[in-house]
Structures
1.
Amino acid sequence: MKRHLARVSALFVFLMLASCGNDGIYSGFEKMKNGAYMKFYSKGNSGVMPRLKDEVTFEMVQYFNDSLLFTTVGAEPMRIVLSEPDFVGDVADGLMMMHVGDSARLVVIADSVFSVTLQMEEIPEEYAGKPIYYDLKLLSVKPFEELEAERKALLDSLQWKEEEFLASVRNDAKNTLTESGIIVMEKTGKGRVASMGDYVDFDFTMCDSNGDTIMNSFSIEPVEIPSALAFDSTGYEKYILPYTTLVVRMKMNHVMDKAAYEKRQAALEAEKEAERERMMALESKTIADYIKSNGIVETPTESGLYIIRQEEGEGDVAQWGDEVGVHYVLKNLNDEQLDSSYDYERPMYFKIGSGQMIPAIEEAVMTMAPGEKVTLITPSSLAFGEFDMGETLPPYSPLKIELELVEVK
């Protein structure tokens, strides 16, 4: 339950699987010439060995100590194009030391995974220096040269297909060809035409030449945009193929000079502020009604947080800068559960003051001793504020949090 629930849940599960000692990490493993530490189950010398930019297909099982993290067993094998390793001795380095048909175990230090692959600024203390194991089996290698030949054939085919499509559109007398190459198929409407320097807002639908929608707003005017004026021979990730002609239907809503634009923006900001104040006033009433209807007698803290003690703890109260482990259940005031650390079967650890947790939890744990349980009623200013977390937690929603302080390190 950090600032974005989905990311937190995935990362939490990932971290909980790490558990292994420091001693003898490389025992029984051979250091390869590229820095990878490997132990071969089966090894041949006649199969093809992959290079950078080659495509490899392989099976992989990933372990933290004896805990399974990831496996391709029972699923499709992995297929990637080998790029420069994230760090010396990673999976790419391991694969480049194998022949087709080889099976091997690779070991890496978790520090590199956390700091380089996951790009985490701090490595959790309990995982520092621990090993991660990868069981690999190299199934096939497709050389870079073959990949390039396939890519060139595909691009030639897509380019030819685009030229054939555009030729038919250009030759239609109903359409207008602009100087830059855009083909205007239909034009309606009245009013001032936009000029360079004007501010405009418009609605649109963007499709490919087959009519499949890529992006959508709202639209009525179709325009053909050759790929040379859009994504050309590169495309856009997996969403738009190279040499894709874009069919864009546009509706121009407003054409404004700078003064008119600034006046309009000021009006929109005023509307937004008025709506924010309305929602915050509604939130205050919602909290007040909840407190009254549930007979809560506790006085809120200066920040507006209600802390309702359920079970006392023992020991020292947590302080700013301490690393603590907590269990939580997050609900809205309709008592609908949104997230729970109990589902992960292990507490969530964080450092007080690091900003990893919402302010309500950071404030509450500094009043708690290990073993203590509380219920929090928190305004959105100490939770997710204006962020929209879906139907069960719209912007400016107060929260009910059941919180248990498990450990203070």
2.
Amino acid sequence: MSVSADSGISLEELRLAARNHAMPLEALRWPITPAGLHYLLIHYDVPLVEPASFRLEVGGAVGQTLSLSLDELRARPSVEVAVTMECAGNGRALLEPRPISQPWLTEAVGTARWRGVPLAALLDEVEPAASAADVVFGGLDRGVEAEVEQRYERSLPLAEARGAGCVLAYEMNSAPLLPQHGFPLRLVVPGWYGMTNVKWLSSITVTEEPFAGYQVAHAYRFRRSEDEEGRPVTRMRPRSLMAPPGIPDFFTRDRVVAGGAPVVLEGRAWSGKAPIVRVEVSDDAGASWAEADLVHDLRDPFAWSGWSFRWEPASPGPYTLCCRATDATGEAQPLEPEWNLGGYENNAVQRVPVVVR
């Protein structure tokens, strides 16, 4: 992944931005994100899948293999979970110098209700070998990255695949998956960044060696130089976002708020590591903070929490609003991002320019 020393957006980045899309931040007011507003990243092409002939193949280092049709999957016991999903590159375009890839600002996130087959039950049925190490998930989409021709594949350690609450989802928000969201089947891994949630899932393979495919060993790694091996990108770091107050300037999207009365600020906060325990708000770019009220409206451990704050501007004029989340591990959002080559895990506090009139 290359890095830009200037602020110009390339034609290639514009093409990526046109085929992928972010969630408008005003949609933070909905506990469940409508499917058409949920963030979307498509690595390669959206495959055309014929549901009548679709099969999910489960095999590898297992006691027995499975080949399941979509109807057979739907006939199995199912679960529904509300899961917040965020792209690992969310915030990439705010880094300096800017890594060249999908130019996300802060909106690459969404929360949906996913219904499907619990992965743990399927793994128990096929009986992984005692020597099993990883579970590899393969999609139907194919492409080329760094001159490597490949299908999109990601893996999880066997213990994580069994214990993380993973779902083989065929429904999103009580409707069949849309083509761009992985129809007819996708993997949902609660708490992990979005790249792990393989779309158009067609194979599950248990391996006896750690998976060394491109998307795990090379693409999604936190490193500061090409020579560094780095560490894998896995669970979402704590983050909060504010629904835009007032009304926007069309071009800059800066906010205009009427003065003379308190303003209710609201938003969402989440972490893939532990529940959110605190959200704080600042109106002076992070120089001072006040605690917001948390609202656990979804009551699901894998979904974001709401928050609200009654803000009383001291006087008319410009302000920079910020919000900061802390999870139960004690990790809080930093004021400044930690630069890395791929632009991953940027969970620095959001800054919202506001003019009070």
3.
Amino acid sequence: MTLRTRFFAATYDRQIARAEKAGLRVFREDLLAGAAGNVLEIGSGTGLNLPCYGPAVESLTMTEPQPAMLRRLQQAVREHATAAKVLRAPAEDLPFDDRTFDVAVSTLVLCGVEDQPRALRELRRVLRPGGRLLFIEHVRSDDPGRARLQDRMNWLNRLMVCCDCNRPTLSSIQEAGFTVTEVEHTVLPKAPKFVSPTIMGTATAPAGLPSGHSPLAAEGRS
């Protein structure tokens, strides 16, 4: 655990507070209204999604790889008096069997994982056939000028908030085998121009794998 990750965890809620008040909290509520059954949330951070889950959620498992964030997540779970299960795990190596969850949730996470394609393959693996991925992610802009600005400013974004602002995440979701069924192109409220392009939506896991076959086995999981 580095000084930077400890500082990021300690200041994250303050950094994102303006965005939450300006509309990001509403994004979360709208997205997670569709969560039901056995739900997995990756990169849960400080637990900002916790108040947004409804009674249709039968079980909630939350993962977080960073120890400093994990402590804050555990405290948030206690404060909300939920039965959520909290585990330390990176999105690239989820400690769950194939086809375990009905829904997976990723909110502002896929910008910061070390290996985005692998994380998405893991999400595909642990979702049941036809299971849903719910996502809010800031992404590379479709506008060439803004995309070049994102490329120029990405070093600063990585330094300050530990993520890449210029990833083609929607394409990555599709390339991982998901079918995107709903997507809204919007902006992250109160964010700089090079961070603001955002997608929110739902993708469905494929249903064609034979029983007991892990997609990662065929794709060289290591």
4.
Amino acid sequence: MNLLVLEGVSKTYGRGHGEQVALCEVSLDIGAGEMVTVYGRRQSGRSTLLRVAAGLERPDCGVVRLDGRDLAERASAGLAGRIGYCQRSLGSPQGETALEQVALAVLARGVARSAARSRSRAVLERVGCASLLTAPPGELNASERMRVAIARALASEPRLLVADEPTIGVDLLDRDAILLLLRSLADEGIAVLTSAADSTGFLGADRALSLSDGRLHGQLRPEIAPVIPLRRAASW
């Protein structure tokens, strides 16, 4: 069984002449340990797709399932912690350091403070931020902020990690390292769903799909999808 399944998902914003179709009967399967990247131009609906897949927005119609359970059902409320959404904004005044930013996400789940700090330190080290534990969020560059965002999402030990344009604003020399970090997480068994505005964001993906006019194109099921030849073995 695939970890994440979208079936006939549609989403429209506005009404009348201002109506904009973001998603039109989109179906998609993602397996554990798979990295899938969705390409689309600006306002193509790719961010909407990722937010719907993460359970942050409800589709107008269709269903989103994680581990076979509908995200829209009340009984599935416990699934929220199994989905990690990378939010780049580090604006919380309570999180004065990178470590505290991540710890806040762990504390919100009811974990004791000492255990939260230990878990936060571990995930920050995992994403290559061991030297940034005490760094103020305002002093981090785009690459470092993305790594902290990934760490914050990993803190809940999710089965699905969603990252909308993870390399946006990141220096060219650092982009591959971010994508290869996500690839390494997929290799550990986490399903990873990302978006990209150009082909440089495909590195490490098992499948690269495109979204246009609200419709998703490409190999939508993992069992029939070849690995794209952009993936390479490298350390993050």
